[in-house]
Every structure is written in C-alpha cells, then in structure tokens.
Amino acid sequence: MKKVSLFVVSVLLISAVLLSACTSGGTPKVRVASDATWPPFEMVDETTKELVGFDIEMVNAIAAEAGFEVEFVNVGFDPLLAGISECQYDAAVSAITITPERGENMAFSDPYLNAGQIVTVKIDNTTINSKDDLSGKTVGAQIGTTGAMEVEKIAGAALTTFDTVDLAYLALQNGQIDAVVADSPTAAGFVAQNADKLKMVGNVFTDENYGIAVCKTNTELLAKINEGLAAIKANGTFDALLDKYDLVSK
Fold first, then answer.
1. Strand partners, 30
2. Residue (of 35, 68, 65, 69) closest to 53 by Cα position
3. pLDDT of residue 204
C-alpha cells in the first residue's frame, strides 16, 4: 500500500512539474545585477525593499519588449563588475560607463545615456571652480568607477574611495574631503536633494555613455537587450522615463 501511495505521489509531482513548464510558456529569466546606491538610477524603496529607479524600470521595459523575465540582484559595484566579467550574472545595470577596459571582460548594449564626470563641492567653497582646481585637494569617488579613474589622472589630487557614492557625498558634507567626482546625472540628483549644502562646479569634463553590461559569451541576450532598447526608444517609453526621473538624454 505504501509503495502504491509513493508511486501515485511521484506521478502527481511529475505531472505538476510538466504542467508548470507548459503553462509558464518557457519564458527565460535573466539575472541582472545592480548596485542600488545610485539614485535616481537604482535605489531601494525603504517601504517595499524593492529595487526602483530609472535603470530598473528601463530594464523591465526592455524585458517586456524582448520577451524575457528579470530577477534583480543587489550587489556592490566592484563585485558587480567582477561578477559580470565571470558571467556569474547574465547582465548588469548600474549607471555603468562603457569603457574599452571593461569591454575586454564584458559586452555592452548600445549606449543609452551620456553621463560625463563633474565636480561637486560644498556650497560655500570658493576655491574649487572646476577639475583644474583639484590639485592639492582630497577628492572622493566611489571605488571602481570612472570618477575614481579620472581623479587618479589629476596631478596632485589625493583620491579617497568609498564603497558607495552616497558615502562620498556624506563625507563631503561633513568636511572630510574637499570635492567629489561622479557621473553628472548622479551628481545632479544628490545636489538637488542637498541644494543648501552642495553645488556642482565647472563643466562636464569627460564624454561617457552608460550601457547595460552583458556576459560576454551571451550574444543572444545582448541582441535581445539591444532589440528591446531600440523598441522602448521608438515607442516613447524611454523618453517618458527620462521625464519621470528628471534626466536629459544628450
């Protein structure tokens, strides 16, 4: 009797799995890494604990157009880059600047936003007016970012790195560093939130573009992402997201 029961249960379980596979339509799930410390691109909603922001909505819209589902993984920026290089994740979106060096270890989608570097200082600072004034100053940037790379190129500037960019801006407000170098859209967001404490100075001094990073061997996924990105740009979804998050495509 026990053997019969076990047999029946096994058949039911197998049937349930097969039925689930059939009804799901076989929609592939893509694991997308993101460092949710880059408002307005990616952040954690304190109420729902879900990832939100421009990049998150953009990827979901791309997935809807290209026919795949998304599972977001919140991870630090350095582990994110290492993980996508080793194909631990299928893709990554986190205000990631496309660079030749990164392109050696990962593939990139078509560019979706220009985001050159800019300097931010305390609102009462009168000695730093552009990147040319950073020599002899202590300058903060998030570790592993192009902002940190640009500071390292400035003769006489002392780079202090932070695990997240918000910690760099906090250190600036507290007077622990003299300036922060970061992507201009991100800088604009932090300055808008702290208009009585921070200001951007000088001009955007690099020409950079954000892209969605993809496991280098997954050419099929890369093609789908580019297809979906083109679709949301064509149907107005992309521009609507730019408006929603007060971003300007350059």
1. 70
2. 35
3. 94
